[in-house]
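Quick one: structure for this chain?
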Amino acid sequence: MTAPSPVKAALLVTGGAIMISFAAIFARLADVEPTTSGFYRMAFGAVGLLVLLAIFKPMRAGFAQGWAASFLIAALFAADIWFWHRSILYIGPGLSTLLANFQVFILTAVGILWLRERVGWRFASGLGLAITGLWLLFGRDWANLPPDYRLGVIFGLLTALAYGLYILTLRGFQIRQSGIAAEARLAQVTICCGLILGAINILEGNSFAIPDGQSLAALIGLGLLCQVLGWLLITRGMPFLPAAIVGLLLLLQPALSIVWDFLIFALRLDPLQLIGAALALVGIYLGFRSAARQRMAGE
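Got it. Here's what it folds into:
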């Protein structure tokens, strides 16, 4: 693959971040059960990825290998989707996406606990800011929040945990099984995750029916724009940019998700909650920088 210029790489990551910022919006607009929307995200995403693999031969390198590992990765991804889509239902697309991005602290915490890495000032400062932001957003009036809302916050944090473990497992197997192209691995994981969520959907007694055209359009957008195109753009541009720039550009996802929630679903936050959201975003950025420095140190 020819290396893109820094400007082109930045545009790729920016475009991808904007696309995935609509993931929670599409999930809410789909107006189906949370597990059902997760299943269709994987189903439409798998179709899109298989088309790409059929067209571009380098993308399908190793597609016949590593399925057992991909099923394990997919199980963590399915947990991520299961928690996140319920968090979207209970607290809205913007805040649920913000909480999901706390996964950067999971990545760094694993390095600290497992690999005995030292805590840098970025991680400590970022974690402090993020916790302060959480308290301003939810903690000040926790006892008076509706039970479903509190459950949505908990699901959002569980999303961050599952998402962090998913990324760590995916990265680990990609290093161990380097002969499998990233696109082939993503297709494997998407297919396996779809099967897992489909089975869960049956066990939960949910229908697979798509109620109307809006739901169909939202589910197609969730699968093709977010699951496939958005992440492909990010993975194409990210290796060619400094970690600081990548971190800032990826902040577009949670920040824009909050903006879309304001515009589409009339999200309302009081001044202290707005400050909390801003502090959480800055904390996530510092957490990303800390995780990026640990990866560079380990390479």
